[in-house]
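User: Hi! I'm working on a homework problem where we have to compare a predicted structure to a textbook description. Could you give me the structure for the chain below?
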Amino acid sequence: MRKKVIAYFRMSDDEQVNSIERQRQTYKTWLKNNPADYECLGEYIERGKSGDACVTRPIQAELLTKISDKEIKPDLLWVSESSRWGRFDTNYKYKFVLPLKKAGIKLQSNQQEIDFSKPESDLLYDVSQSMSYIENYQRAERVTSGIAVLVEKKELPLHTCYGLIKDGKKLKLDNDKAEIVRKMFARYLERGSINNVVYWLNHEVKIPSPTGKKWSLATVRDLLRNPKVSGHYVYGRRRTGKIFHYDNSLLPKQRHEDEKGTSLPQKQYFIEYAPEIVEPIIDLETWGKTQLLLIEKTQPTQRLKGKKHKYTGVLRCRCGSVMRGRKRGPLVEYTCTHGNAGGCTSIVHYEVNLNNFISETLKQMTDEDAVYNVLYAQNKSTDDNEQELSELREKYARGQQRLYDLEGMLPDGFTDKLRELKKEIDIKERRSKTVLDLTKLRLAAAETARHYKEVFKDATDASELSREQIQEHFKSITVELTRVQSQTGKRKYSSINRLLIHTYMGKENTDGDNGYNVSPLDAISYLEWTVNVPLPLKFARCIPDPF
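Assistant: Happy to help. Predicted structure tokens:
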């Protein structure tokens, strides 16, 4: 039976014009020598992407996703040499090898076949990759050193900026644009405002920016800070490079692991006055005055104090993320911090509506019977609780299996969530095996109701609660949604279905137990309230409900 093969070709940069064709020719020769044994399923080509682990390779990621989802089921993955699949140390091996290993796919190069299910073959691949990584590391250090030498000799060509054009390895004036730059500096020194310069460029003289669009604040500010306009040869204003970078010392410095492959600004860079290479647009005196004024006008960013809204930190989205409050006109609204404004649900919740929903709960919190009923329902072992406990155990078992199989590929916080799930299971198991002390339960309800009456005596509804009261007595308020539609079915949107409110019971001990001991094995520290929100008028719940 013929084996199925997928080919992956990669070249590091666009200057390697013949690299892909050379790899394809090698692949065709390999297939030609084995025509009866292999069947080609396709080719995946990655252009202009380094093999370093810090670089994102979209074609490779797409291929691994298809393999993991079993959209394609090859027997072999062909590369011209193992380093074409990637140059990385063993810390990153799981990203690129584990999906192949789980799918039983061998890595076939022109020289050898690597079977990850065999320990000796897996070890050989590790050694090969480590040697390739070391070679790449040393080459990057040499390249960075070579660039630094050219910078020190001022032989490395500079990029142009607005007002300057290239003339061989030198920069000379673009007279018309250079005159605009001089007027920009003069206007800034006269008015002391970058916004004023931007307005002047866009609305008075109406000159397009370097990109052909309108000038922005950032573009003008960067031009005012660019040393090239004053005749300086400058290099290294941003840290670039996958492994090494250099600063004004012109010595190769290894980049931090979380910075690899990114471009970041740096304060220490090579700068030297060289009017013979960079023709000055403005004189040094004007340049110096401008930099001093920019420093004087720069205000340090300060965090606003006392501006947090009262449900901030307590209100949570259905996805578990904390919701952020902000004022829009007379109203305060809350959005999910997960993703863009509006978050995972693209829904805004208004504080005035939340106050109305929570006010009913506020009344129940001061009612002894209501507190007792919540405590009893919260802790009584029922068939529903047994069913919920069984589902939690199954969910925990699936999470453990994922942890064993894909430990290195799991999202951030997965282990913590699994640990919290185990705690919830332990609590429910203890409750299912114990008998509630109804006398203690009634006493706890009475004391809690009295505590709430004292705390909220001046508040008739939730709108009168202060932020301090909410932060101190409310553990969390979680919003659950439902999808609704109009009677005609033309309008559909997401609406609040209910609020899940957890409130502290008001008793705290410093010895480690918080709450009331109402059963032999457990202590209750908070109450679970549910507020069902009515559907909007003339709207009905969608079936099926996506939430």
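For your comparison, note the following. The two ends are 48 Å apart (CA to CA). The chain has a mean pLDDT of 78. Good luck with the assignment!
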